[in-house]
Amino acid sequence: MSAGGAARLSVQELIEAARRASFVGRSDELAAFRGTFDLPPGDARRRFVFHIHGNSGVGKTSLVREFAEAARERQALVAVLDESATGVPEAMEELCHLFAGQGYPLKALDKLLATYRQRRYEAESAAATATAPDPQQGPTAGSLAAAQAGLIGLGMVPGVGALAGAVEPAQVARGATAVKALLSARFGKQEDVELVLDPLRVLTPVLVAELNRVAADLPWLALFFDTYERTGPFLDLWLRDLITSRRHGLLPGNVVVTLSGQQPLDPACWADHAAFVADLPLAPFTEAEARRLLTAKGVTDEQVVREVLTLSGRLPVLVSTLAENPGAVDDPCATAVERFLKWEQDPVRRAAALDGALPRRLNEDVLGAAVEGDTEGLFTWLRGLPFVSDRGGRAQYHDVVRDPMLRLRRNSSPESWRAGHTRLAQAFGGWREAAEEGLEADQRWGQDSWRELRVEELYHLLCARPRPALAAALRDGIDACDAGAVTARHWARTVADAGADGDSELLRALGGAALSALEDERRRGTGALGLILARPEPDEETRVAALVVRGRDHRNLGEWQEALRDYRRAIELDADCRRARFGLGETYRLVGRYDEALAEFERALALDAADTWSLASLAQTKHVLGRTEEALADLDRAIDARPGHVWALVRRAQVRRALGDSEGALADIGRARELDPGNVWILGELGWILRHAGRYEQAIAHFDRALSQDPAYAWALGSRAMTKHALGRTEEALADLESALELDPGYLWALLRRVEIHRERGDTLREFVDLDRMVTQARSKEWALSQRGYAHALAGRYEEAVADYGLALAHHPGYAYAYVSRGRAYERLHRHEEALADLDRALELEPRQAFALVARAGVRRALGDLEGELSDLDRAVEIAPDNQSHLTLREEARCRAGAMGDGGRRRLPDE
């Protein structure tokens, strides 16, 4: 407190107070905004969205500032966002920051956003343990081998009823789609997969819940989105759905949203909701408004007034700027900037005004780097100028003034232009190097503080010398794409800005094309990387890096052939690129080419024996192939190399459980929990291990704990459902499955489990309703159709089963399981020759299918071919020597052969 007892105001607050005191005009717009706070909630005149729009310089930001103050006068909690957010999650992060700064933290959202940030940068390693789908997004040729190994991924469930005990729900759930399979194997927790694949669907309901919580204690919440011409492309649909639909929950009725940008709202997005939007187009000041502002500034000389009106075009920002420094009217052709500089007599300030325009944003340190000489007091002076606004704690020139200042500086002295940008690039480079301390090279672009310094360094390098800096910029683009689409947009925006500000058509076109390619975040960086690879500047090393990252993105999108092409090309250029070897192996694994996958993982490990992700993928591949002991040994190696490798510990726990070592599995999962106690995925996996150990009540307790931490954890709901079902609590199980499917309608494992429960209860109608839904929703149509065919066969409807298996084979002619199943259905219909043809074909595709061999043995028995029957059963027992049913069938066949006394040779009719 000051001596007089009043709170001492900051420089920023004093500047802001002065600006507000000088605000004139826009009375109608202010009245409309203030009026909405006086209307009752149900009043038809009330508007929930205000849209300010107009050309640069018409005063949009100033009006937003006035609206925000008007909202505060009504005790509203206010948040103002600008273009610093480059995606919807980043906008939510800024909301969290702004609310917390006013004493209203959004803790649940902030926690989930932290998880999102962590998971977003882990996409590269997500492929390490994915369930392997077919190149056509369906089952692989090795699906039955996977079943025999006890790992049945989505679309690889032969005879679920017979093999229910071997089905691994975690693997099935993670195989819902190719991308989900890639990510869920790394994250385990289904909601972390959804968080990365569809962050808006996961994050937005949490935001809505937090806004409802905060709004309950406040009269109003006022959210402002300034510079909407930049943020609208990714905010538009999200904000519309947030405000007008129930998709993400119900927004509190005391929320008022203001959008401010250069263009009108997109009618394709907002036309149906115009009744709730107050459209506020801003034109330049009327002459009367401009005169009032000049009078308020003390500018009354008519000749000066007329000159200012002419020179400014009545744009509020220029009227304010010129009014601050009225002087002699001596050059009617002068630009606004030239006139401003003439009226500022202090040469240091004049130079600082031009130098301060060079950076995109300013703080005192940046100004010190931009200006040659002593800068004491200059930053405070600049912040008080009418065309300088505060954005996130830093100063920023208004574009209407900055653009002509840059042109003046660039055209009047190109060498001075280059020198200024070079000084700034060197300064940002020094700060960036200091920020690298303790950061691994592959972590840097994922760190906001480092990235911000690097893109500003890059901006100034490109402005100073566009073509010489381009090669480094393209290499940065690869690293930015590697870190994710949001980071890539920061890079692309920087290139585009450097092109516009430095008047480089090359950079302007490249940055603009990259931004367009990155608009669809689900496409990741494939389009932007293609632009980089099309340029002549990248050297061989840079091309390898681009191909590896693009290959990763193609792989994560399920674009197998494109991924294989990129990885192979990278290896052609650099045979010792470990990451390319790993990526190629992962892609081979995902399309079921296991031998080739194993070879590539071994090559990657030859390049780096401590590569834990290659070890992990090697282990996963061997596990799928039934080489479980070898998989365990590989995971042991990975954990020896990195004792704190949480993912490897959880996977080893799963392998140990599959080997019947419940205690070892529990020890591993316990160690993982010690290392990462807040990870609900680990909690869920612990529940699953306890379930398999028959400790059902303990399993349910752990699923309960996981769900208390994350109520949207669909996998935990599905797993708890089946644990309850094992205890006979079937109605509770069905309720859990229904909740899981509400959270994730594409959760086909939960749908399949519900099918089985309906089947057990004899509820055929509901069983086939769910089966039809599976056929509609599944990407792997052949798998879903085969499941429905299996249900028809169980019900004795063999003709319908044959029809469904035929449809499955039309989708995937190499689907061995469908041939086996159709062959069995033909056998029930006594169409033995057709049955034999299908089973022969299945065994051509999968020669070591014990399941198919046993089925063919049955057909040969019906045809009287005891010799062929025994041959098939002998091979089946050789493949699966521990299968008691195969042994029993072979013993029965041998007994029949012995009774015949001729070794089972088929008798001829005349014998």
Count helical runs: 48
What is the gyration radius calculated from CA atoms? 34 Å
Largest sheet: 5 strands, parallel
Residues in helix, %: 55-70%
Q: CATH topology of one domain, anyone?
A: Rossmann fold
What integer is the average pLDDT? 82
Fourth-level CATH superfamily of one domain: P-loop containing nucleotide triphosphate hydrolases
Number of strands: 7
CATH architect. name of one domain: 3-Layer(aba) Sandwich
Share in β-strands: under 5%
Overall body shape: elongated
Order of strands side by side in the largest beta sheet? Answer: 2-3-4-1-5
Distance between the termini: 118 Å
Low-confidence stretches: 1-5, 123-182, 328-334, 902-911
What structural class do the secondary elements suggest? mainly alpha
Output the CATH class name of one domain: Alpha Beta
